[in-house]
Specification:
The chain is an alpha/beta fold. The protein has nine helices and eight strands. The chain has an eight-stranded mixed sheet with strand order 1-8-2-7-6-3-5-4, with helices on both faces. Helix 5 links the parallel strand 4 and strand 5. Helix 3 crosses helix 4 and helix 6 packs across helix 8. The chain binds adenosine-5'-diphosphate (ADP) and magnesium ion (MG). Adenosine-5'-diphosphate (ADP) binds next to helix 3. Belongs to the DEAD box helicase family. DDX3/DED1 subfamily. ATP-binding RNA helicase involved in translation initiation. Remodels RNA in response to ADP and ATP concentrations by facilitating disruption, but also formation of RNA duplexes.
Length: 254
């Protein structure tokens, strides 16, 4: 499955926006957190894909990004690597805000990273990858999706949830039940944004991102991924991203 590294040099990669930083060239010389580098190697990754080369570099520069890339281009690492590199570097107290604000007695979990994805299968795949890259770190990944027992998911969340992978509908439900608070979010990812809109999730996505306790666009890092870049995705990018770099890998449809 996955990636044909032979054809790498043929893939056109284009970055636009204000001063996009240069992509990293390989994992070893990217000055990654040692634990993240170890976990990447243990997962069998040797060379970063084009999306990963750019996103690691943009993550370090604190930039938002909108990446258009096809299935199989390594988008999962593309968002997990910059998020985990920064989170491992800062450690739990700094990454979580450190001032104890909002930690009143409540059963809500307060993840620092939220990844929205359209389907149960995709959320599960992302959380499995995340589990490998988070191995032996303080970051605890957690996954929730619709069509499954919500009580069981709430129990698992209560054991620890720093990085939450969620389908939009189920997340809205958990927020409304007071089980998830967005107040600590530092990283927001919309994966397969075009598919989420095709499935009719735009109202839920807007309810989540525009919720009053979600940190504003200046207080969080936002990364969007989509195979295509039609008008409705352009509008979401305009509303959710700040000073973003537009990255296209391969040919992108409109
Ligand atoms: P996308 O989300 O763009 O469809 P994925 O992130 O799911 O792509 O990656 C597709 C497959 O390639 C997965 O099996 C993943 O583990 C593998 N993969 C991703 N990046 C690398 C890499 N740098 N080296 C080796 N395998 C990779
Ligand atoms: Mg994917």
């Amino acid at each position: 499955t996955g990636i044909n590294f032979e054809k790498y040099d043929d893939i056109p990669v284009d970055a636009s926006g204000r001063d996009p930083p240069a992509p990293i060239t390989n994992f070893e010389e990217a000055d990654l957190e040692p634990l993240l580098l170890e976990n990447i190697k243990m997962s069998g990754y040797r060379v970063p894909t084009p999306v990963q080369k750019s996103s690691i570099s943009y993550g370090r520069a604190g930039r938002d990004m909108m990446a258009c890339a096809q299935t199989g281009s390594g988008k999962t690492g593309g968002f997990l690597f910059p998020i985990l590199n920064e989170s491992f570097r800062k450690g739990p107290s700094e990454a979580q805000g450190g001032d104890g604000r909002g930690h009143y007695r409540s059963r809500a979990v307060r993840p620092i990273a939220l990844i929205l994805s359209p389907t149960r299968e995709l959320t599960m795949q992302i959380s499995e990858e995340a589990r490998k890259f988070c191995y032996r770190s303080w970051v605890r990944p957690c996954v929730v999706y619709g069509g499954a027992d919500i009580v069981g998911q709430m129990r698992l969340m209560e054991r620890g949830c720093d990085l939450l992978v969620a389908t939009p509908g189920r997340l809205v439900d958990l927020i409304e039940r007071g089980r998830v608070s967005l107040s600590n979010i530092r990283y927001l990812v919309l994966d397969e944004a075009d598919r989420m809109l095709d499935m009719g999730f735009e109202p839920q996505i807007r309810r989540i991102v525009e919720k009053e306790d979600m940190p504003g666009v200046d207080e969080r890092h936002t990364l969007m991924f989509s195979a295509t870049f039609p008008r409705d995705i352009q509008m979401l990018a305009r509303d959710f991203l700040k000073d973003y770099i537009f990255l296209s890998v391969g040919r992108v449809g409109a």
